[in-house]
Design brief:
38% helix, eight-stranded mixed beta sheet, alpha/beta
Length: 484
């Protein structure tokens, strides 16, 4: 029986469409539902609103900067660094000097009125021992060397052998038949630290694969005044461990020229290096506890260990001191952020971030409460930018934070925060930041006898301290954590 309003099949179609439309969820709504409960900052407040919140810290930021750069705290981080390095000296992993450095900083933090504690870790203990190298043909010449961390030593009588000089791993493979029983000298050109350091790290094992008895590696530096640079090296599993040391740029180039002339080069190498059982050590931790969310953390850091040459003032005494100074500036101004500000001075960074990895393993269960991790380990020269790794939304917020640094002309935010000690956190998705400075001279002094207080400038350290303190305090005091 026909009904008014049209044929039955049309009425059925209309009703079906009405039902489907009532069940439909638009894509935007689906996205909203998907993000609900994730803790995304966008569910509470837009980034534009946060920009206004950050701008409200301009007066506080200026107070921090004025205190650090012009006020009573002027040059304090430099003075602290000088006292520390002049008193302790260099601080290689596992050494008594590193133990003394940790005790020194524990007492210094306590005297500064900060909450301080030590967290125990096990770290490598490599000892250099006596070492020397002499070129005995085609003429006699002393060669300045620095054995590489984890290297084995030579036999007591040393190693006397003819030298094979190559400029790359590829050349070594091409000339593999010439390497048996020789000391391989790598005269690789410096391209960048990140690329060229492979020769220091893997040169010994690559040479051992083709029968070499030792390696002498051109120091990983763009500039030299006959100064060798040390660092950690890694033996490959299943490959014979042979002694490995760095020589100066000048001596590497000298032997290359001699080899190009067809001259036979003979070197006598003696190294007393050895590895002892892992040592007990500590990460040193100081805090200003947050007033509203004490369980949430903004972490500042530098590493306390150094190599066993120079004073470790640049690498990484400066980073350690500005991470202390940031807390001191905030405390001196009577400020207390919503979240906890935590400075960690890592132990055993130079052997590969050993102390920091153990800290991460201990605290990773609480990584959702780590708001931002910061590390300064590329020197404390004139600051030019903050480097940051995080979500797009977090980058927008941090871009607003660095605007507060206009009084010291460091308002640039760059991508890719870096640092051996904070890398596990960033890999796990925690936002990370590092200090970008005018570091063109950094690798001149890196891991050498030249890393002393003479490299450091008090005004540069004032600026680095101010930047470090402003960024840490503002992020720790914002109403919301940085979005992941």
């Amino acid at each position: 029986m026909a009904q008014e309003g049209g044929p039955p099949f049309l009425l059925s179609l209309v009703m079906l469409l009405l039902v489907l439309s009532s069940l439909c969820v638009c894509p935007g709504s689906m996205r909203s539902m998907a993000t609900a409960g994730t803790g995304s900052i966008h569910t509470a407040r837009e980034v534009s609103k946060i920009a206004a919140e950050v701008a409200g810290y301009a007066d506080v930021a200026k107070r921090i900067i004025d205190l650090a750069v012009f006020g009573a705290a002027q040059n304090r981080s430099h003075s602290r660094l000088a006292d520390f390095t002049d008193t302790i000296g260099n601080r290689v992993s596992g050494s008594h000097d590193l133990e003394m450095a940790i005790k020194y900083m524990y007492n210094a933090f306590a005297q500064d009125g900060l909450d301080v504690h030590l967290e125990p870790v096990k770290i490598p203990h490599w000892v250099r021992g006596k070492e020397s190298a002499e070129m005995i043909a085609p003429r006699a010449k002393h060669l300045a060397i620095l054995g590489l961390g984890s290297s084995v030593g030579t036999p007591p009588e040393g190693i006397k052998a003819e030298v094979l000089v190559v400029q790359s791993f590829d050349e070594l493979k091409q000339r593999a038949s010439e390497a048996m029983g020789r000391i391989v000298v790598f005269n690789q050109p410096f391209v960048s630290y990140g690329e060229t350091v492979a020769y220091r790290a893997y040169g010994a094992s690559e040479a051992a694969k083709v029968g070499a008895v030792a390696t002498l590696i051109r120091s990983i530096t763009p500039f030299s005044i006959n100064s060798p640079h040390t660092g950690w090296q890694d033996y490959q599993e299943g490959v014979k461990c042979i002694p490995s040391a760095c020589i100066t740029v000048e001596d590497a180039e000298l032997m290359w020229r001699m080899a190009q002339r067809g001259q036979s080069i003979v070197v006598r190498l003696s190294m007393g290096a050895k590895t002892l059982p892992d040592a007990d050590s500590f990460n040193t931790v100081a805090e200003i506890t947050g007033w509203q969310h004490p369980e949430q953390v903004v972490l500042l850091s530098g590493h306390l260990d150094s190599w066993d040459v120079g004073q470790g003032a640049m690498d990484d005494g400066g980073g350690a001191m500005i991470s202390w100074e940031a807390l001191s500036l905030i405390k001196d101004l009577g400020l207390r952020p919503r979240r906890t500000l935590r400075t960690v001075l890592w132990t055993a960074e130079e052997p590969g971030g050993v102390g920091a990895q153990q800290y991460y393993d201990l605290h990773k269960v609480n990584r959702s409460n780590f708001d931002l991790v910061m590390e300064s380990d590329m020197g404390t020269f004139t600051p030019v930018a903050l480097q940051f790794t995080g979500s797009v939304a977090a980058q927008k917020i941090m871009a607003e934070v660095v605007k507060l640094l206009a009084p010291i002309n460091t308002t640039k935010l760059e991508t890719h925060g870096e640092g051996t000690d904070i890398s596990p956190w960033m890999t796990a998705g925690v936002p990370g930041a590092s200090l970008h400075v005018e570091d063109s001279r950094y690798f001149w002094f890196h891991h050498s006898e030249g890393d002393t207080m003479t490299v450091q400038d008090p005004q540069d350290m004032n600026l680095c301290s101010a930047l470090w303190a402003v960024v840490a305090y503002v992020v720790a005091d914002l109403q919301d954590m940085l979005p992941r």
